Amino acid sequence: MRTNTIHPSSTLRLTSKRRNSIILEFLKEWIRQMNLIVIGTQWGDEGKGKIVDLLSEGADYVVRYQGGHNAGHTIVIGEKKIVLHLIPTGLLQPGKAGVIGNGVVIDPKALLEEIAVLSSEGISVTGRLFISEAAHLIMPYHQRIDLESEKTKGPRKIGTTGRGIGPAYADKMARTGIRVCDLYDPDLFREKLKTNLIEVNLILEQVYHAAGFDVEKIFQEYLTYAEKIKPYITDTARLLNTAIDNGKHLLFEGAQGTHLDVDHGTYPFVTSSNSAAGGACTGTGVGPTRMNEVLGVAKAYTTRVGSGPFPSELKGEMEETLRKKGSEFGATTGRPRRCGWFDVLQVRHTVRINHMTSLAVTKLDVLDGFPEISICVGYQVNGQILDEMPTDLKSLEQATPVLKHFSGWSESTNGVTSYEKLPHNARIYLEALSQLVGCRIDIVSTSSKRGETIVLRTPFPTH
Length: 463
Ligand code: IMP
Fold this sequence. Notes:
ten-stranded mixed beta sheet, 13 helices, binds inosinic acid, alpha/beta
């Protein structure tokens, strides 16, 4: 019996002209649309700031999607070094817009301080900075809880940046968070604050034996901030989707690294947000089918700040040398970074879970002059050799690295801008990294300066 139901195979009955026109439309849309997510492949501090700054030349909007002012993105322009914590790096390029998405947690005091620093450098964000009204706020009590909670953990402390990031995200998930939009409804804001402080003050005073907070004081302080940040507040999901509809190019700037991601990292020694590429969708309201490429940034070796397992970590003189040559001190807290060899298992995992389309390798020049360079290609755990990163903390903590050795190079790679000019052994090293992690290298950075970069393929268009 015939019915009026459209059979799925009816699409097959499209005329070839109609089919071609659909394909053409799709391709046109695909070519017009170029949205790139830049992520860290290790434990943060991979040098994303420089790479994002470089690529943002081709972007209309640079968008932060997670984290807060725990991040530290360092950019060197001429002789000047600028460290951004919360404001998207792209704002350093004239004419670009920067967006702080709903997935970011915002300390308004820190934000205003950063705006003031930029202003003193002659960089105005007026009309170029957009902040999500749905983003959650970091409140003064979040920072105090962060610090007190770390104290009680003793040797098992996470080594947080102490910025209140974890407690702010915890409130978001517990549905007690205060969002940017709440600031503009003073009665609701006061009510939420009052309710939260009942529990917060009990915890601070009775569990941590620390001072509690006064509702009115925070209320007045945050109303002042609200007034100052008002010009930047908007529905950023709508802004970004409209921008894509109009053929604009978006660059999503990840903070921290995939192995600090709360779901995919070395839990619990992680941050409290999704720093992996998936976070770019939830943290901005731009859907996955609108994303085109994922570029992962990896240091030519590995560093980590804070506690947690680090199988390829070096100790002693070698670590000191790497730290000194690479200036490996935290951009946010100034803490010395732990240093070790490049870990293939770690970055291969990152390539997989982000479905990375290419890799940017940074700080190659730091390895100049080492007679031998090693990379970690396996973990030995309880007499067994693993070629994948284990999920459980105990195995990771017990892992000792299986190393593969490469001859180093004596020539300087500092400032080299063409791949062919790299020493032979440096090229062998890079090609081995690319092959072992299973991802093409698009960019190699040979110094902290903007122009001193090898671009093999641009993963992002230039206007
Ligand atoms: P939190 O993000 O302050 O809660 O810190 C949690 C962990 O993430 C700690 O080990 C921090 O050192 C680390 N972390 C947070 N932000 C960054 C970053 O931007 N770079 C490197 N490590 C970070």
